[in-house]
Amino acid sequence: MKQVPFNPEELNLFFKQLWKKSLNPFWICKPIAGDFEMVLANPAALKLDPLQKPGTKFSELIATGKYPDGILDGYHKCLADKLPLEFEQTPVVNGKEYLFRTFLVPIVNDNDEVTHIWGTSHNLTDFIDPQRELLMINQYLDAKVQERTEQLNQAMKRLEKLTITDELTQLANRRYFDDALQKEIARAKRNNQPLALIYFDIDYFKTFNDTYGHTAGDKCLKRVAQVLSHHAQRAADVVARYGGEEFVMLLPNLNCQQALQVAERVRTEVAGLRIPNQETEAKVVTISAGVAVIKESSFNADTLLKLADNALYQSKSNGRNCSLIAS
C-alpha cells in the first residue's frame, strides 16, 4: 500500500509535537550515498546515545561498537521496498545489552521517492508498552488520512463536473442535458405538469466564423451562453450547449406562452449584444428559437426534441431572428 506523502514542513511539525512526549527513542534520518544521516532525535534517543544528533552518519554510530552488525539492513530494505518495517536490535548501553523492537516508516514524496525514514524503538527489555507511542502516531496519521480523503473527494467532484460541462461555454453539455430531459419528462408526467423545451440556434454562425475567425466565434458562443444562463435561474431549469452553435433550454412547469416569452427575451437580448455580423441582413449576431411543450402522457424525449427542432426549422424558414411554438 502506498504511503501517505508528507512534505518537510509537515514532518517537522509532526516530530516536534512527538519528540518531547515520547517515552522511547524517536528519530528521523535521511538516505545519503550508501548511508543514512540523522536529521532529528528526541531526548530519549539522545539519552540512549548522545551521538544520535543531527548530522551524524549511521556508519559513525556503528563504528562505536554499540550496535550489532547488519543493523543497516533494515534501513536499506525500508528504502528499497518503500514500506514500513519492524526488526529487533540489541544495542549496548553502559555495558548492558538491551533488546529493542525498532519500527521504521519511509516518507515518500509525490515523485514516489523516499526522502526520509522515521523510526522509533520500544524497549522490550523493560516491558514498555508500545501502544502509548503508537496511539499518538495513529492519531496523527488518521488526521492525515482524513485530509487526503477530503482532497480526493474534492478532486472527484471537480472531475464529475468536467464530465457534464461544456468546456468552452461552461454550460451543461449534451450528456447532462439528455439525462436531465429524461428525468424531467418523468416528473412532468408524474405531477401532471407541463414541460417546455426551447431549441436555439445562432443565425449564420458559419458566416460569422468565416468572416471573423474561430477565436471570435468562441467569444460569441460564450456571450450567447451567458445570456441563456441569465434566463434559466430556477433550480430545475437546465440550459446546455447541444452542439456547435445549438443550445437547448429545459423549463419545467411552463406552458407554451410562458416558454415563448423566455425565448423572445433571450432572442432580444442576444440581438442587443450588438455583436457585428456584417455579412447578414441584421448586421449583428441573432438567434432563432423553437418552442415545444409536453401536452400528453405519451410524449417522450425524442418527441419533444423533434417538435422543438421542427419549430426551430420554421423559425429559420421565416427569415431567422424569431421564435415559434411547435404546432
Automatic annotation (TrEMBL):
One GO biological process term = cell adhesion involved in single-species biofilm formation
Q: What CDD domains does the entry give?
A: GGDEF (cd01949)
Which EC number applies?
2.7.7.65
Query: What is the enzyme's main class?
Result: transferase
Q: Which GO terms describe its molecular function?
A: diguanylate cyclase activity
Reactions performed catalytically: 2 GTP = 3',3'-c-di-GMP + 2 diphosphate
| Annotated ranges, domain GGDEF | 193-327
Origin superkingdom? Bacteria
User: What is the required cofactor set for this protein?
Assistant: Mg(2+)
One Pfam family of this protein, by short name?
A: GGDEF
GO cellular component terms attached to this protein's record: plasma membrane
Concerning InterPro entries, the annotation shows: Diguanylate_Cyclase, GGDEF_dom, Nucleotide_cyclase, Rev_trsase/Diguanyl_cyclase
Name by which UniProt lists this protein? diguanylate cyclase
- UniProt source species: Pseudidiomarina marina
